[in-house]
Amino acid sequence: MEARCQCGSVVFKTPLEKPLALYICHCADCRRQTSSAFGTSAIFPTFSIPNTDLLSCYSRPTTSGDTLYCYFCKVCGTRLVHMSPGKNVCSVKGGCLDGLDWNKAIHLWTKSAMVPIPEDAESHSGTSDISDYRACQEELDQPTNALG
Ligand SMILES: [Zn+2]
Ligand SMILES: [Zn+2]
């Protein structure tokens, strides 16, 4: 899939034509990170991003003890990709991708959602009912078993 930041300085292709999984996370962290009502994560096998001189990086520790590297366009600030070293998958922020099928998105942390959740969508209210993935999207960015 084609990914592009708002100003068009950073353009890249994902390694697959469809994500392995697509999440919409309604937790407070994702709300803050996006300055929006929720965050979105399209999970892909880890790949190297071109135009790295046009990217800046914000890194932060995760609750699982990893470091999450969050890449964004230096020019327009669009958050594009989240990665952790040693993980086999990464998260491309959904809004920068063309042609995503949002109907397949899995909703997380719906108990703190600010907007209605579609009734037919797969959804999880918080951490306790998700065994495969961690609670927050930014940790979910790196599900170790997404490739089976
Ligand atoms: Zn940009
Ligand atoms: Zn979240």
- Based on Cα principal axes, name the global outline: globular
Walk across the major sheet and give the strand order: 5-6-7-8-4-3-9
Q: Approximately how much helix is present in the residues? A: under 10%
Count of discrete structural domains: 1
**Radius of gyration in whole Å, from Cα?**
14 Å
CATH class: Mainly Beta
Helix/strand/pairing category: mainly beta
Low-pLDDT residue spans: 128-136
What is the number of strand segments?
9
Count of helical stretches: 2
- Note the main sheet: 7 strands, mixed
Mean pLDDT: 86
The topology string of helices and strands comes to: EEEHEEEEEEH
Strand proportion: 25-35%
Using the coordinates shown, work out and report the CATH topology.
Metal Binding Protein, Guanine Nucleotide Exchange Factor, Chain A
CATH A-level architecture: Beta Complex
The unique ligands bound to this protein are: zinc ion
Tell me the span between the first and last alpha carbons: 21 Å
Domain CENP-V/GFA: 1-103
Organism: Phialemonium thermophilum
Keywords: Lyase, Metal-binding, Zinc
Protein name: CENP-V/GFA domain-containing protein
